[in-house]
Amino acid sequence: MGKTYERIDGRLRRFIEDQPLFFTATAPLSGDGTVNLSPKGLKGSFAVLDDLTLAYLDFAGSHAETIAHLRENGRITLMWCAFQGPPNIVRVHGRGEAVLRDDPRFPELLTAFPDIDPTRHGLRAVIVVRADLIRDSCGYAVPYMAYEADRELHAKRFAREDDASLSAYFAKKDHIATSIDGLPGLPLPLPPTGAGAAGAGAGAGAGAGG
């Protein structure tokens, strides 16, 4: 029997933090737009910021559908499945935001991910999600599967890129700056690494926000 939760704490939080894999789902407002579903992994790239706020690192890839959808409407669902132990599925429905590298909040958000070297993965943004509805379900049909280790391919591929080459890589892709449905995606060229820290200083002096 499913249950609705008021906050992410205790056993629920431990379950979420223990999973090596989760999924994100977003969609545009258009009824004939493309629904996007993505798997997310890499140990240390997800964090519970408080009882209602979650965040994960958005790394280099071939698409930017999640960022585009969040920029348009903010709707997002995160899902975790128990592939070992007692069956369980947890979904967090909420509102998300892509905090980009030149946002003054970006450096502080990165401190929530101490085990990740952002220079090795082509970090594009921190996705921050505020939960509106938290619920679980049985997961009786989810199979047992064993986690062995994270793949090393992503870090090997993108560790050799600097800010300029990473922007050039994204510019060659069809669905980075714009989504499959033509929505604005990741702004290019990428702000240089550390631009958020500089922006924070400028914002403090000028009274401007990100």
Keyphrases for this structure?
210 residues; alpha+beta; Pnp Oxidase, Chain A
Can you characterise this structure?
The protein has helices at 10-18, 65-72, 106-110, 153-158, 163-171, 195-206, and strands at 3-5, 22-26, 36-40, 46-50, 53-58, 75-81, 89-100, 125-137. It is an alpha+beta fold and 210 residues long. A hairpin with a 7-residue loop joins β6 (75-81) and β7. The termini are far apart. It is globular. It has six helices and eight strands. It has a single domain (3-201), classed as Pnp Oxidase, Chain A. The chain is 23% helix and 27% strand. Strands 1, 2, 3, 4, 5, 6, 7 and 8 form an eight-stranded antiparallel sheet that branches. The model is unreliable at 198-210 (pLDDT under 50).
Question: In terms of topology, how is this protein built?
Answer:
Elements: E1 3-5, H1 10-18, E2 22-26, E3 36-40, E4 46-50, E5 53-58, H2 65-72, E6 75-81, E7 89-100, H3 106-110, E8 125-137, H4 153-158, H5 163-171, H6 195-206
Antiparallel strand pairs: 1-8, 2-3, 2-6, 4-5, 5-8, 6-7, 7-8
